[in-house]
Amino acid sequence: MDGSYVETALTDAENAFQDTRGHTAESGLAVTDSALVQLRKACRLLEAARTLRERNGYYTVVIEASFVAVERSLQFYLLDRGHVSAEDLRYEHTRVYRHATTVNLFSEAFADRLTQLWQQNRAEVYYRETVASAEQADAMVALAEAVHRYVLEYASLEHDCVCSSNP
Ligand SMILES: [Zn+2]
């Protein structure tokens, strides 16, 4: 790929992340508070998941977006309450479930079930043991919406949500 059109594309992508002056920002995300950024990302991911699901397909993407929306909703709460720094949450996806138990959002057993669900989905995506189904996509969007709604109610911060349809 070196020296080919792929390298040109890689250089363009690197530049796009290094120099963002004059870029068009995604709506709803132009906020400075790091917790609020995570919440708004969750709102946008849910919106994207719902939109793709309504188009009757893209189950794999809907499932992936739903998992990330769950993660972002939990990150929002942890950051908002000052329980973690953004650095603490950067790398491991399932660590956020563990953090959430320490602030009593849910139990250890609940965190284990979320972790298992995530790992099972990951394994199936990588090893193609099954193909994503409409039922799985529906269930994951519903789960992501439920987590989003619960966190907002728990934090009494519903007004910060920018979902078009209140989840
Ligand atoms: Zn929202």
Account of the protein in words:
There is one protein chain. By secondary structure, the protein is mainly alpha-helical. It contains 6 helices and no strands. The chain has helices at 5-18, 34-54, 59-80, 95-102, 108-127, 134-155. The longest helix is centred in the middle third of the chain and has 22 residues, at 59-80. The chain is globular. The structure holds zinc ion.
Could you give the topology of this structure?
Layout (H helix, E strand, L loop, with lengths): L4 H14 L15 H21 L4 H22 L14 H8 L5 H20 L6 H22 L12
Helix pairs in contact: 2-3, 2-6, 3-4, 3-6, 4-5
Zinc ion binds next to loops.
Short structural description:
The chain is an all-alpha fold. Helices cover 64% and strands 0% of the residues.
Alpha-carbon distance between the two ends: 44 Å
> Could you say which overall geometry the principal axes of the C-alpha atoms support?
globular
Work out the number of β strands.
0
CATH homologous superfamily caption: Nucleotidyltransferases  domain 2
Main CATH class? Mainly Alpha
Q: Beta-strand level of the residues, as a percent range?
A: under 5%
CATH topology type:
Four Helix Bundle (Hemerythrin (Met), subunit A)
Radius of gyration, in Å, reads: 17 Å
Number of helices, counting only DSSP H or I runs of 4 residues or more: 6
What is the oligomer described by this structure?
single chain
